[in-house]
Write a structure and sequence with these properties.
Layout lengths: L22 E6 L5 E3 L4 E3 L1 H9 L3 E6 L7 H16 L6 H10 L3 H23 L1
Parallel strand pairs: 1-4
Antiparallel strand pairs: 1-2, 2-3
């Protein structure tokens, strides 16, 4: 009887050695569940936000297509955090300018500087 090689199952994360060891791969499933491949368990959006806030580098990918969803999910986390803390991390005026200028960096640089100052202020408040 001849043995055949076992093939990897579909939807499995890339082999750990091929990823940056400092990077945590999160797989997002169609049912909105997030799977942390480093810790081998499902996590909540709140846990993900905590990991990012702690400085952990994460990459979020669609479990089927492998599409990078990191920006989309992190943006969602910012909006959830704004609502939860009742703060304005991204002012409406800034969001409007982003859409109006669509990548014209010089047109929104003053807004970005203002956001950096706000972020610095928030960091100081939360540390005290």
């Amino acid at each position: 009887m001849q043995r055949t090689k076992k093939r990897g199952r579909r939807g499995r994360p890339p082999v750990r050695e091929t990823l940056d060891p400092a990077l945590t791969l999160i797989k997002k499933y169609g049912n909105r569940r997030l799977y942390d491949t480093r810790r081998s368990r499902y996590i909540t959006l709140e846990e993900l936000a905590g990991s990012i806030a702690a400085g952990e580098e994460v990459r979020i990918v669609d479990s089927k297509s492998g599409e990078d969803l990191t920006k989309r999910v992190v943006t969602k986390l910012i909006l959830i955090e704004e609502q939860r803390r009742r703060t304005e991390l991204l002012p409406l005026s800034f969001l409007r300018k982003l859409l109006q200028h669509r990548g014209a960096e010089s047109a929104i640089s003053a807004e970005i500087d203002e956001l950096k100052a706000r972020l610095s202020n928030l960091e100081t408040r939360f540390r005290s």
